Amino acid sequence: MSTVRNIARGVQSFTSNAFLVDGERSVLVDAGSGFDAVERIEAATGTLDAVALTHTHPDHVGNLESVVEAFDVDVWGFDPDSGFVDHAVADGDGIRIGDEDYEVLHTPGHKDDHVCLYSAAAGALFAGDLVFADGGYGRTDLEEGDHGALLNSLEYLLSSVDSALSTMYVGHGRTVDADPKHHIELARQTARMRA
């Protein structure tokens, strides 16, 4: 079974969470920014096979160059024109993370290239900055932000996950390991009220 570690835990600079998923295929989901990600990966597992990006905001990709150089790995993400992505993924594609296959869900609104990664088999969702604990959701006042698109993405996410979802790894804040679908529903309700 895969082990998931947030290598950005305890970092005091502005960074996203960065989840190192160990298993058959060691993958870093988002690289974070402003800390020595290479040192933390080496201390945790010593190896890395790939990086998967939920999106390309600076706080999620700031450490990417050093990680790619240190481990000689390729990067999977939605936007191949971003300059960060070696392998483009599209809505509905699969990507192997740890010991499980994850489905790519294109979820724009916070940023055009935003994706969530969901595995029913693992009961896990990497939600990036689409949704956070307690019904929070990503900003839409930045470039490429669109509140209507974000609301549609929340609806899409709710229709894509099922009762197997037990853990939601988010881009900022704490991991949700109790009734994650409820947190997504709260985010949808809040976003609807602000539409």
Automatic annotation (TrEMBL):
<protein>
    <submittedName>
        <fullName>Beta-lactamase domain protein</fullName>
    </submittedName>
</protein>
<feature type="domain" description="Metallo-beta-lactamase">
    <location>
        <begin position="15"/>
        <end position="172"/>
    </location>
</feature>
<keyword id="KW-0862">Zinc</keyword>
<dbReference type="InterPro" id="IPR036866">
    <property type="entry name" value="RibonucZ/Hydroxyglut_hydro"/>
</dbReference>
<keyword id="KW-0378">Hydrolase</keyword>
<dbReference type="Pfam" id="PF00753">
    <property type="entry name" value="Lactamase_B"/>
</dbReference>
<dbReference type="InterPro" id="IPR051453">
    <property type="entry name" value="MBL_Glyoxalase_II"/>
</dbReference>
<dbReference type="InterPro" id="IPR001279">
    <property type="entry name" value="Metallo-B-lactamas"/>
</dbReference>
<keyword id="KW-0479">Metal-binding</keyword>
<dbReference type="GO" id="GO:0046872">
    <property type="term" value="F:metal ion binding"/>
</dbReference>
<dbReference type="GO" id="GO:0016787">
    <property type="term" value="F:hydrolase activity"/>
</dbReference>
